[in-house]
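FAQ

Q: What does a record look like?
A: Structure on top, sequence underneath. For example:
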């Protein structure tokens, strides 16, 4: 009987465990951010040397609610056209999360059904990081990105 009482007490303690909420974001990212994406690494098998360090102008319009991010994405000509002969010029943030100063966003590109994961570290007026774009079950592009707050 003592064993059953101890077992029941242990079970109740397990049920009483309280989940702690995730830490609050250390930055407020709502606004318009503009900068560039840079295709790297050079020599990657999927890219010819002609697109090595290809740069696009990118813009994020971010809406932050707590630790969640949503919003819009735009790509424009830098020193190279956006993927798919410029077709991939617009998208939306399907999911985004801010934890401390770190952020992760999945950008969906409806024109070709691809998606890009943007990983970064944010300061008050600047975000820098890496991105990887996926299409058809494989990696279509990867590189670095950096943006600054313009609004």
């Amino acid at each position: 009987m003592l064993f059953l009482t101890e077992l029941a007490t242990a079970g109740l303690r397990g049920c009483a465990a309280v989940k702690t909420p995730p830490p609050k974001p250390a930055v407020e990212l709502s606004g318009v951010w503009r900068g560039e994406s840079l295709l790297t690494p050079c020599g990657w098998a999927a890219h010819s040397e002609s697109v090595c360090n290809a740069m696009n102008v990118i813009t994020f319009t971010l809406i932050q609610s707590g630790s969640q991010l949503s919003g819009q994405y735009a790509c424009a000509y830098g020193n190279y056209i956006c993927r798919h002969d410029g077709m991939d010029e617009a998208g939306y943030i399907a999911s985004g999360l801010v934890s401390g100063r770190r952020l992760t966003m999945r950008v969906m590109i409806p024109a070709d059904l691809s998606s890009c994961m943007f990983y970064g570290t944010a300061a008050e007026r600047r975000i820098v990081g890496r991105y990887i774009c996926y299409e058809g079950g494989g990696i279509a592009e990867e590189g670095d990105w950096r943006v600054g707050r313009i609004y």
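Q: Is there anything notable about this one?
A: The chain has one domain: 22-149.
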